[in-house]
Write a structure and sequence with these properties.
It is a single chain. By secondary structure, this protein is α+β, with helices and mostly antiparallel strands. It folds into two domains: about 5-95, no CATH class; about 145-260, Roll (Chitinase A, domain 3), CATH 3.10.50. Helices cover about 45% and strands about 15% of the residues. Strands 1, 2, 3, 4, 5, 6 and 7 form a seven-stranded antiparallel sheet that branches.
């Protein structure tokens, strides 16, 4: 026989507290009215009542969020409320065996909803990746024709926006670099920018995407390049979910500020001694 623990009971039953109160209407107006009503009721509520109410509201909010996320709003809210109240009154109308059966069915519905959502997300990402692949190839072909654009053997494209300092060094694979950069998709959408944050980034060149590793080694200190990076030198078919689609061609404007900036800092002067010199 399936036996539910207290936590499972609370998770199922507590949903009644919020679900039974969820009715369609003007959300902003309802929220304002509810806030004023809650404030008024809270001021007259006894302290021991507030504890119980807060516990129930917190559990119900959690359950409602989970039900909404999995699109399980068709569950009968009146029955949920009745089950909750019956449990509190020690007057449960179903056997433990039946409750266990229903709870298992409830879990199956959640799992099915999650699997469906995952499949839909995967299908959407696949479609976005196919689109990005086609559009990226066309963009690279056109960009290569632009004046000042150089294409390397790997397919990396770059354009010099600003020359570096005369005789300036170029970084090696093993160096740390200090840069300002702006990264964007080929439609102009900016997904990351140290320039917007107003703070240069410093990191080992060996730990970034292939397009950066190759490209930044071409840059003398003080220069600014625009790199157009094929997907295979960036994040590949997987992309960065929610930020960069799979197969996406990326563009980066990069300004190289310094190489190994920590090593180039002047050594700190020793602190002056506060002790008086000894008298001879």
């Amino acid at each position: 026989m399936f036996k539910m623990n207290i936590k499972q009971w609370l998770l199922i039953a507590a949903s009644a507290l919020v679900l039974s109160a969820c009715q369609p209407g003007d959300k902003k107006e309802d929220a304002t009215k509810e806030s004023a009503k809650a404030s008024s009721e809270s001021s007259t509520m006894k302290e021991e009542d507030k504890i119980g109410y807060a516990l129930g509201a917190k559990m119900a909010s959690f359950i409602k969020q989970d039900l909404d996320k999995n699109n399980l709003g068709l569950i009968n809210k009146d029955s949920v409320a009745r089950g909750f109240n019956d449990a509190l009154a020690d007057n449960i109308q179903l056997s433990e065996e039946e409750i266990g059966k229903q709870f298992a069915m409830f879990q199956q519905r959640i799992q099915a909803a999650q699997q469906q959502a995952a499949a839909e997300k995967q299908q959407k990402m696949k479609a976005e990746a196919e689109k990005a692949k086609t559009e990226g190839a066309a963009f690279l072909a056109e960009n290569a024709k632009k004046e000042g654009v150089t294409t390397t053997k790997s397919g990396l494209q770059y354009q010099i926006l600003k020359d570096g300092d005369k005789g300036a060094a170029k970084p090696k694979f093993t160096d740390n670099v200090k840069v300002h950069y702006t990264g964007s998709l080929i439609d102009g959408t900016v997904f990351d920018s140290s320039a917007k944050r107003g703070q240069p980034a410093t990191f080992p060149l060996s730990r970034v995407i292939k397009g950066w590793i190759e490209g930044v080694q071409l840059m003398p200190v003080g220069s600014k390049f625009r790199f157009t990076i094929p997907s295979e030198l960036a994040y590949g078919p997987g992309g960065q979910p929610g930020v960069i689609p799979g197969n996406a061609v990326l563009q980066f404007d990069i300004e190289l500020i310094a190489i190994n900036p920590e090593a180039n800092k002047p050594a700190a002067k020793p602190a002056a001694s506060k002790e008086k010199p000894a008298k001879g």
